[in-house]
Amino acid sequence: xxxxxxxxxxxxxxxxxxxxxxxxxxxxxxxxxxxxxxxxxxxxxxxxxxxxxxxxxxxxxxxxxxxxxxxxxxxxxxxxxxxxxxxxxxxxxxxxxxxxxxxxxxxxxxxxxxxxxxxxxxxxxxxxxxxxxxxxxxxxxxxxxxxxxxxxxxxxxxxxxxxxxxxxxxxxxxxxxxxxxxxxxxxxxxxxxxxxxxxxxxxxxxxxxxxxxxxxxxxxxxxxxxxxxxxxxxxxxxxxxxxxxxxxxxxxxxxxxxxxxxxxxxxxxxxxxxxxxxxxxxxxxxxxxxxxxxxxxxxxxxxxxxxxxxxxxxxxxxxxxxxxxxxxxxxxxxxxxxxxxxxxxxxxxxxxxxxxxxxxxxxxxxxxxxxxxxxxxxxxxxxxxxxxxxxxxxxxxxxxxxxxxxxxxxxxxxxxxxxxxxxxxxxxxxxxxxxxxxxxxxxxxxxxxxxxxxxxxxxxxxxxxxxxxxxxxxxxxxxxxxxxxxxxxxxxxxxxxxxxxxxxxxxxxxxxxxxxxxxxxxxxxxxxxxxxxxxxxxxxxxxxxxxxxxxxxxxxxxxxxxxxxxxxxxxxxxxxxxxxxxxxxxxxxxxxxxxxxxxxxxxxxxxxxxxxxxxxxxxxxxxxxxxxxxxxxxxxxxxxxxxxxxxxxxxxxxxxxxxxxxxxxxxxxxxxxxxxxxxxxxxxxxxxxxxxxxxxxxxxxxxxxxxxxxxxxxxxxxxxxxxxxxxxxxxxxxxxxxxxxxxxxxxxxx
Length: 750
Ligand code: ACM
Ligand code: ZN
What we know:
Elements: H1 8-18, E1 36-45, E2 50-55, H2 58-67, E3 75-77, E4 84-88, E5 102-107, E6 110-115, H3 118-132, E7 137-145, E8 151-157, H4 165-177, E9 182-186, E10 188-189, E11 192-193, H5 201-205, E12 209-210, H6 215-220, E13 233-234, H7 239-251, E14 255-262, H8 267-272, H9 293-309, E15 314-318, H10 325-329, H11 331-340, H12 345-361, E16 366-370, E17 383-386, H13 391-398, E18 403-405, H14 408-411, H15 433-437, H16 447-450, E19 453-460, H17 468-475, H18 478-487, H19 495-511, E20 524-530, E21 535-541, E22 548-552, E23 563-564, E24 569-571, E25 574-583, E26 586-597, E27 605-608, H20 619-622, E28 645-647, E29 652-674, E30 684-690, E31 697-703, H21 706-709, E32 713-735, E33 742-749
Parallel strand pairs: 2-3, 2-4, 4-6, 8-9, 8-19, 9-14, 14-15, 15-16, 16-17, 17-18, 18-19
Antiparallel strand pairs: 1-7, 5-6, 5-7, 10-11, 12-13, 20-21, 21-24, 22-23, 22-25, 25-26, 27-29, 28-33, 29-32, 29-33, 30-31, 30-32
């Protein structure tokens, strides 16, 4: 075994520091990180009682005064000698075309915030509050700042579980401090209708209430809306509630964008108005009938009320995940298709979206729809919200439509954020904070395409989120990363520095009464395979900061006196690592047990049997394609991280050619189980060898322990270990247990 710790990273940092530009650049504890921070000399004391003056139009000053009681720094209005001077200059201060920019200067006289608009002044104040937090003096400096994208959003699903207006306002208040400016309010879905609509009382008297409270249990029970009202769970917003939330958001420069789902995700509407479904019966379909004129009357009436309540220029009309099944069998839908010359049901959906768009355009509004609205022909003025991938948004942008990026593999806040074995039940894959933070657009986009990508958004689907506290747990701190992706230019993003700032921020919002995920206490690892030097570079980190990582390589448990991790391991053959976080003497989280092998199959040829190949409909499940299981790269806890190869519904059946006859003593692969999205451990694994590629001998079979198969989440090594045998070809056959998804990340041959 060889391993070496290097200090390359530290050496590089010293070199960079030595050749920095003459202007001293300060690091400030602000989220999202500003575009430019230039430090002056010294500090200025914060007065015990802060005063401010504001040179801005009276209406905007009134808005600011209405917000100030909730601003983090108590300030009183004063005349010319105020410590904080806010000046709306009415023109852009920066080269950036953004109206939301600001310039904040701190010098011996105090603080000056110059901005082109009230929003810019508001953002300057948010930066000031973060700079001043817990301090009695400010550094002399100048911040020049403006957002990368105009749209920086958070989505809240209040249908699957209902969250009251106070919860919604509480989230708006916090995201505004991170300079996020859109709240996408998912008001209608199969879990319940949440907006009072004049003339349609059944929506909120019946379709907003259910038993039992937990969505997953209710779904198992058939998703019925009860006739009686005793012991029901749910709720809705009155027109006054909406006006209150919209105004609260406006004072924080947040636009509330309502979503009314159509034509799918509408089973709650059809439960109370079954005449709008293709079958005419309740509980038979989630899609409305597009052949029925009453469907349009209904949605136009709903949208009229929505437009009365929401000043937002954009109305989100859903458009996702509509099954075409009922439309195919419905005489009214089929007649509509004939009359309108629509060649398939995708075009029928597009007909509806385009018709609703015309209605809203006629009233001066524009639509946003989920990326499925691309499928049957895009409505002429629609903005696309790209959730299944980044590519769909790029496709829309290439067609000169605006697009908002909310790809599920980065920005879905209903996914696990840490080792699923340590977390409350969530939907499917794991998206840790660092993965959210890493999001960027491909650097190959032309400026003409890129300008149509107007922003990013985090989506909080609530099937697995039964309480408001749990919603906050899923949203924060990942929304802080989304805020920084949306605001900060990529050149000014810094993952390591963000890790430090986010630790402070999480502790701060806990103190404010939020319930964030308190950051992972697991050791995180990354591997880089260096094929030229035949080694794997293994590095460790943690979400927590500051923290110690201690480790052993002899199979023993790390203790408070074990070696301190200081830099990457270079693994030339095998390393058996055990590593754990320590806060001083106190161990945190679980020990990471990680076996890293520069094994015999790395870089070798692998051939899949006809019915044993991997799933190709999703790029991340291909894990790099044919080389994916022999590239040395081990996956993390998420099957969607690009290292796990998926098999569905067939088995994994592959043969590796080692190139020459070699003695082997171990052939093993790790399999993952996450039941909620149908990822299951295999029933059995068979390992065969051959020296000629024709005659194979079974070395052994391995079956999955029943106690592991019973778990919601499990990771299990399966394969063969024994006395050395000569082999050139190794066949690895993992048999499906459920004919759903199998996932493995590497076939290790030693
Ligand atoms: C979605 O997640 N169905 C937009
Ligand atoms: Zn129909």
